[in-house]
Amino acid sequence: MERKRNPFVRSLSGGRILSASQLPWFTVLPPRGFGVLTTIGRRTGKPRRKCVRAIRDGNRAYVVSIGGGRAAWMKNVWSDPNVRLRIRGGSFAGVARELTDPAAREKASRIYCGTVNPFDYVECTMHRAGRPTRSKIQELHRHWFENGRALVIDLG
After folding, report:
1. Hey, which end of the chain has fewer CB within 10 Å, N or C?
2. Please, which residues have CB within 8 angstroms of residue 96's CB and are 6 or more apart in sequence?
3. What whole-number distance in Å separates Cα of residue 70 and Cα of residue 87?
4. CATH architecture of 7-155
5. Distance between CA atoms of 100 and 111, rounded to whole angstroms?
6. Do 108 and 153 form a contact (C-beta atoms < 8 A)?
7. pLDDT category, 58, cuts 50, 70, 90?
8. Is 84 helix (H, G, I), strand (E, B) or coil?
9. pLDDT of residue 5
10. Do 42 and 80 meet the contact criterion of CB atoms below 8 Å apart?
11. Domain residues of the chain, as ranges?
């Protein structure tokens, strides 16, 4: 069941506040399965940082924009796909692109939705009522993947 009254997950502005509160911690040491995505602002040309769920698979990382194309960071990626991703294991320059090929989407879905990390349990409590379980977390991530915009970042 979706949490109805949590202001952090019900709007884009709430998501920005949540990301801003996590940013100092994630910049120092991002939890496994999460990272800090740095884009270049499409209007200002300044670096913009956003906390995201990023699942690494070799020299690729998968990220989903829950709000679809409405999120400012997604608009920045469309304007300039060259990004920087700070995850466990270091900081990587990369090129982001939307997943459109059905076979690539299927593989990305398996990786993104099938991976459950310890911080995902905390994240699940923000979005779903009740005690977080592995199946509840996977269902949440599947919902995001199917209804959001999935990106792959080719890490350099």
Report:
1. N
2. 63, 77, 81, 83, 151, 152, 153
3. 24
4. Roll (2.30)
5. 16
6. no
7. very high
8. strand
9. 56
10. yes
11. 7-155
